[in-house]
Amino acid sequence: MVQFIVGRLLYLVPTLIGITIVAFGFVRVLPGDPVLLMAGEHGVSPERHAALMAQFGFDRPLWEQYLDYVTGLLQGDLGQSIITKVPIANEFFSLFPATVELSVCAIVVAIVIGIPAGVLAAVKRGSWFDQTSMGIALVGYSMPIFWWGLLLIILFSGILQWTPVSGRISLIYFFEPVTGFMLIDSLLSGEKGAFASAVQHLILPTVVLATIPLAVIARQTRSAMLEVLGEDYVRTARAKGLSPLRVVGMHALRNAMIPVITTIGLQVGVLLAGAILTETIFSWPGIGKWLIDSIFRRDYPAVQGGLLLVALVVMAVNLTVDLLYGLVNPRIRHR
Amino acid sequence: MVRKTVFAAASVAAMLLAGTASAKTLIYCSEGSPEGFDPAPYTAGTTNDASSKTLYNRLVEFEKGETTVVPALAEKWEVSDDGLEYTFHLRKGVKFQKTSFFTPTREFNADDVLFSFNRQRQKDSPWYQYTSGVAWDYFDSMDMPNLIKDIVKVDDYTVKFVLTRPDAPFVANLAMDFASILSKEYADKLEAANKKADINLAPIGTGPFAFVAYQKDAVIRYAAHPDYWGGKQPIDNLVFAITTDPAVRVQKLKAGECQAAPYPPPADLAGLRADPKLKVEEQAGLNIAYLAYNTRMAPFDRPEVRRALNQAINKQAIIDAVFQGSGQVAKNPIPPTMWSYSESTVDDKYDPEAAKKALEAAGVKGLKMKVWAMPVSRPYMPNARRTAELIQADFAKVGVGVEIVSMEWGEYLKKAAEVDRDGAVILGWTGDNGDPDNFLGVLLGCAGVGNNNRAQWCYKPFDEIVLKAKTLSGQAERAKLYEEAQAIFKEQAPWATLAHSTVFQPLSTKVSGYKMDPLGSHRFDGVDIAD
Questions:
Q1: Alpha carbon A164 to its chain's center
Q2: Residues in domain Solute-binding protein family (chain B) (predicted)?
Q3: Where are the alpha helices (DSSP H) in chain A?
Q4: What is the pLDDT of residue B451?
Q5: In b/e form, how buried is each residue of A156-179, taking b as 16+ CB within 10 angstroms?
Q6: A51, B348, B380, B530: which sits with the fewest CB atoms below 10 Å from its CB?
Q7: Which of B137, B255, B411 lies closest to A158 in CB terms?
Q8: Cα nearest neighbour of A45 on chain B
């Protein structure tokens, strides 16, 4: 097992180097530069443009800038936003808990609903439940997040007024963030009604962000279960007279979970991509919204630092999934 | 550390206010996050709404809802006969805000004025580069480093600005956001603690509201400044709830989660107006959208060709289709709300037949040209691509083939400014200081060729008039010259003036005292909210 983990960790090194190159290169291949965008219609003279680019260090050869960037990284320094002048790490980690909170809620909802729905659809293959749930999953998978979010806001916040429109908590509550996770901080604050307000604010963004992973997990679970349910050992279990619940729950589901776990791991990347849109619609102060703003402003250090940190998170999750995979399926760790 | 202290005291302040039954809070759903809280390094309106308008004052300010310059931190000022010296007499008894992170020990005086300006112009000032990458873009783009020769402290309450040349818009420039006055005492304290960058995170000013807390990308909280020289504000708390999506801002307004929000989508206006809990105010924006020909390139180097093309554009169709009625046809290069606007100008009549004949008379046949369309929506132009398509169709009717060009915004701005750029470019401008020179001089003067003068148009008779007007101090004299300049502009037609957009401001009916700002900012001083 140790060898397996070390092997997986070693795989990360070239990936990390690749990510630094991609993150560094990505913003620089985009046309336009921060100075032009900051000046807007006011324009900027060529001399002033050159002076400002030099001030940011963007006039130096790319390889020099890259070396500086990597040297900084090795010293734990991600640089400073050229717009807000605040260190990237401070900006990222002040916003990251909001994204984590939303993503965790979304993936939990997706798993808790998606797996049972997929299992039930497989067991009752061809039934009205199977057809309806898989139909809904297909619609959910194809739904543009932006449109879906606005639709929910108009219905539940606008017409029915059941949920707040956007934000993380009602603005009447005001306390110092301790963990950055609003659900926890609202409890710690001791303010009456704060936790309920935080939960209410989470409902719609969670539903929107969970929609695609939920659809994918349900469909994947169904097809994996169908495959497993046709295996000889399941038939044997049935022949031994085990109850249908035990056959499905113990024998079939555990084996069907292997591709499902992989899918869940892959959904983390999808979640972070979805968070960009979800956060924008719901004014959710997370890293998705921050990254988009940074890209629009060509805030090179923020984009390259942010992308690297997001990539690290995705890699860490995938590594965990790999390790879990090894636990669930011994054949993999012994290969 | 700053954040922790800010929050600790802010919580106390909030608790105190929450404990007061009559505490009034106004929530404004702002459209974006401020880049920082020091106004001078930034040019974005979003940043200035959150900083200079709420937290700071300037020596002079624009009258609320007007472009007239009125006294603020300076009670009065005199201009020397040669127009080179401006002496400002400062208001006494002005207090800086007291917050959790700073308690002022003295009132506002001349040192604060010198600090606020010298940090932007003296390269040896420790504040010139108080954190890496700080640039004084607005100060520089208004040519202040070349204009200001010296700033002299005559006494504690008198400051003299010495200029290198007479410049009539100078006072109006001092009402702009970059000229906000910061506390030197606070700056000294930060410098001593080696925390200069905090001036951009935890601000102190003399303005109507004091900074309480900022949660990045989420919410900014302010409390009324109890000792404000203009009197305490009718509301106790002001909250900016950052809501970037325009459709979501509309929903929040309707749900009562905020009482004011900027930039509603035109398609939502009818719904907002129909809501009995809301009112929608509107005002002609201090802006212009134009199509600038490259007047250095044939056949656009001839005024008769440019005039003929202008006749071919159906501007009303653009207002209807692109602005969805929220705009008006432009006939002059300055907006109608600006002083010196020439009412007597006769606009080019939309007449494709006449345009075709005029082009034939000018010997222009089978012309193929590029029309540049911006990739972004701007306050003066919601959809440049659609506008370009309409112009393309209009020009096709007079036998002119149009290829629409678009590119990334930064590149667009850069390439559109190049002297040898081909074709005509759609662009626009929003006024900075309410002065006609900010349009006629900046956008059409010879000095702007290769930069802001996108028509690359340098016409001496026009330029001389505009430059002369800049040296005069009497508004009536200047207005006369600017009216002459507008007549020359119309005759020479370096642009097709397309539209002035209308700006809308939806508010809760509970809100009173709000005045729309022709310069496009959002001010909450003097605003009240009913319980």
A1: 23
A2: 68-450
A3: 2-29, 34-39, 46-56, 62-74, 88-123, 128-142, 145-152, 182-189, 194-229, 232-239, 244-246, 253-281, 287-296, 300-328, 330-333
A4: 83
A5: bbbeeeebbbbbbbbbebbbbbee
A6: B530
A7: B255
A8: B451
Q: Give CB contacts under 8 A, 24+ apart, made by B221-225.
A: B221/A174, B221/B10, B221/B14, B222/B54, B222/B55, B223/B13, B223/B17, B225/B95, B225/B97
Residue B168 phi, psi dihedral angles, 5° rounding: -60, -40
Contacts of residue A62, defined as CB under 8 A and 6 or more positions apart, other chains included, come to A28
**For residues A305 and A313, what is the distance between their CA atoms, to the nearest angstrom?**
12
Q: How far is A91 from chain B (nearest CA, A)?
A: 8
Cβ atoms of A96 and A287 within 8 Å: the answer is: yes
- Identity of the residue in B36, B221, B413 whose CB atom sits nearest the CB atom of A85: B36
Name residue, tokens 């003299």. Answer: B160
Is the pLDDT at B106 greater than 70? The verdict is yes
* Sign of the alpha-carbon dihedral angle for B220, B223, B228, B234: positive
Gap from A304 CA to chain B (nearest CA, Å): 17
Q: Is B242 on the interface with A (CB under 8 A)?
A: yes
Provide CB contacts within 8 A for B234, sequence distance 6+: B24, B513, B526, B527, B528, B529
* Token pair listed for B318: 């653009």
Residue with tokens 């507008």: B486
Contacts of B368 (CB under 8 A, 6+ apart): B400, B401, B402, B403
Quick one: pLDDT at residue B7?
Answer: 47
**Region A187-206: what's the mean pLDDT?**
94
pLDDT above 70 (res B429): yes
- Name every residue whose Cβ is closer than 8 Å to that of residue B511 and which is 6 or more positions away in sequence: B26, B259, B260, B527, B528, B529
ipTM of the complex: 0.83
Q: How many angstroms away from the CA of B317 is the closest CA of chain A?
A: 25
Q: Cβ of A95 and B407 within 8 Å?
A: no
Model pLDDT for residues A128-179, shown as the tens digit of each residue: 999 999 999 999 888 888 899 999 999 999 899 999 999 999 998 988 889 9
**Nearest by CB: B133 against A31, A82, A161:** A82
The distance of B478 to chain A (nearest Cα, Å) reads 24
B143 touches chain A (CB under 8 A): no
- Would an 8 Å CB–CB cutoff place B313 in contact with chain A? no
Tokens of A290: 């921050």
B127: its two tokens: 């504040």
B196, amino acid identity: K
CB nearest B217 (choices: A30, A161, A290): A290
Among B366, B421, B371, CA closest to B391: B371
d(CA A75, CA A68): 11
B221 at A interface, C-beta within 8 A: yes
For residue B374, pLDDT over 70 is answered with yes
Q: What is the average pLDDT score of chain B?
A: 92
Least confident span in A2-16, B343-357, B363-377:
A2-16
B141 and A280 within 8 Å at the Cβ level: the answer is: no
CB atoms within 10 A of CB A187: 14
Q: Would you state the pLDDT for residue B265? A: 85
pLDDT-derived band at B8 (thresholds 50, 70, 90) equals very low
Per-window interface: B 12-31 vs A, CB < 8 A:
14, 18, 25, 27
B153 strand-pairing partners: B159
- Which pLDDT tens digit goes with each residue over A121-136? 999 988 999 999 999 9
Residues forming a β-bridge with B430: B287
pLDDT in tens, A286-303: 998 899 888 888 888 999
Residues B428, A41: C-beta atoms closer than 8 Å: yes
Q: How far is B245 from chain A (nearest CA, A)?
A: 6
Unique residue bearing structure tokens 């046309």: A31
